Amino acid sequence: HPHIHQQSFESDDFTEVVQAVNQLGKRILKEEERRGQLIADVAHELRTPLTILRSQLETLVLEGKEVSIHQLIPLVDEIIHMQQLIHNLQQLSLAKANQITIKRSWFVFQEWLEEIIETLNIKAIEKEIEVKVEGKVSKEVYWDSSRMKQVVINLLGNAIKYTEQGGKVNIVLKQSQGIVKIQIIDNGPGIPPEKLPYVFKRFYRVDASRSRVSGGSGLGLAIAKEFVELHGGSIYVESESGEGTTFTAILPIFPVD
Ligand code: ADP
């Protein structure tokens, strides 16, 4: 008879082990599901611009005439759209996998913000939207300036994109005890309450048809959330249909741990 070593379990211990294994199994299945969904979403997102590109190119080829620059511009736009999508997706997966190292440096918040507003000003002027800044952050901040710039571009870009001609966009700044609060407030169409919980999810769009026209991919807010959280901050949204939307990001000026 081989010697059988018996490990005696208290029955409570055993139940706990079984539960833990079950939970792990469920988590793995959920993760698998999430991955499958991500691949499906990416495939879906790339299909539309690729279909457009292909049919436009085929038309040009079939016509057999010399192609003018003017005919090529929309094709280049589609390619840029796909590249942006892939870049955003890459940023998002890197952040999710904890593979982004943020490069912090001290910089003057106010100058940095003015520059970002300047880059988005053309779009605002086109839509006769006035971007006003209320409040001031006099301190320097110790952030990853390019990652945080992306956050502000995504939020402010959305505010300008979704607000109608002649609308208003306000940036409200507050600072206290090592914390900066940035609010981006617009008087655009707002987001219906039942859709609010989902706006930070990747590929989520409140109005898919309208977003597609405005070139959105539904990744901007997901990226903003990841980048803010990488800085130890938090972000949330408040909105009322027909009234407007407020995004609030709260960030420590330098890391606290
Ligand atoms: P997109 O690339 O579609 O703009 P985002 O992740 O930036 O993706 O935003 C997700 C969705 O949230 C948008 O499609 C839009 O429906 C909604 N949204 C974001 N910002 C605003 C805003 N300021 N006003 C109204 N709706 C907004």
UniProtKB/TrEMBL annotation:
Chief place where the protein resides: membrane
Keywords, in A-Z order: ATP-binding, Kinase, Membrane, Nucleotide-binding, Phosphoprotein, Transferase, Transmembrane, Transmembrane helix, Two-component regulatory system
EC numbers, comma separated: 2.7.13.3
Keyword Zinc listed: no
UniProt domain Histidine kinase: residue ranges: 41-255
Any Gene Ontology biological process: cellular response to phosphate starvation
Subcellular location: Cell membrane
Molecular function via GO: ATP binding; phosphoprotein phosphatase activity; phosphorelay sensor kinase activity
Keyword flag Cytoplasm: no
GO cellular component, one term: plasma membrane
Substrates-to-products reaction catalysed: ATP + protein L-histidine = ADP + protein N-phospho-L-histidine
Membrane topology category: Multi-pass membrane protein
Domain of life: Bacteria
Protein's recorded name: histidine kinase
Source organism of this protein record: Thermoflavimicrobium daqui
